[in-house]
Prior knowledge:
single chain
Amino acid sequence: METWTVETDDDGGLLEVHSFGPAGGAAFPGAQRATSGPGVVLVHGTLVTDSLYWQFARHLSALLGRPVHTYNRRGRGGSAPQPSNYSAETEINDLTAVMKASESTEVVGHSFGGFVALQTARQGTISRLVTYDAAVSFSGSLNGRWRPELEESLTAGQLDQAWAHLVQGLGTAGPISYLPLGALRLLSILSAKTRLGYEMRGLLPAAVLEMHAVLDAESSIEDFAALETPTLMLSGGWSPAYFAAIARQVAAVSPAVESGVVPFHFHDGPIRPGKLLAERTAKYLAA
C-alpha cells in the first residue's frame, strides 16, 4: 500500500489517498506498474474512514490486475476538514481530483460514496461505475429517513442518542437497526469503548452534513435518464429495501444502468470479510 496526497481545489487543502496494486505491482501514480489499464477509485460511505475498505480494495486490485485507490473524504484521517460551504459539489470536485491525480477512469462507490459517484458520473467524468447501496433521494424519498432529533441530540452533546436516531432512521445496521432507542443508546455507549465505535461517534457531525448534501441535491428520477456512464447498481440482499428500489428506479430510466442484488449481504458488505462482492464488481468493470 502507498499513501500519498491530492490537493483539493479550495485553498490548498489535501486528501489522503491509499493505493493498492496487483501482487508484485506498484499502485502509486507514476511508479512502474505491473500491468496497464485505468485505475479504479473507491469512495467510502459515511461514519467511516477509508481504512475499512482496504481489504476490499486489495481483492479488487488482484482480480482486475490494476491499481485501486481509496481516499479519506473530508473530515477524516489526513484529509482536509469539511469546508463551511460543504455540499455535494465539494465531494464531486474531490473525487474528480483523485481520479485525475491517480490516472483513474473507473469508480466504485458505497452508500454515500455511491451518491457521490452517481452525481459525478452525471457530469460525464467516469468511464465505468459500480455502486453498492447508493444513497440517492428522488422527490423526497429519503426525507423520512432523516430525523431532526438526530441534530437536536448532537447539538445537546448527546452523542449516544444521536447515534441511535441515525441507525434507527437509516436502518443500515442490519437487525440492530430495529432495536428500541434505549437499547441502541446502550449499544452506542458500549461500542464507544472500541476504536471503531469511538471513531464513528466522532464522525457524527460530518454525517449530518453529508446527509444534508444528499437531501439538498434532491432530484427527480428523470434527471438520471441522460446518464450515459455504464453503471451497475448493486444492493445487498439483506440491506434495507429502499436501496434496491433506488437501483431499480435508475435502471428503469437509463439504458446505461443495470441493477442487481448480492444475496446474503448487509449494507456494510464492502467492509465485511468475503470476496463475492469484489468478484461481482470486478466482473462488471472488466467487461
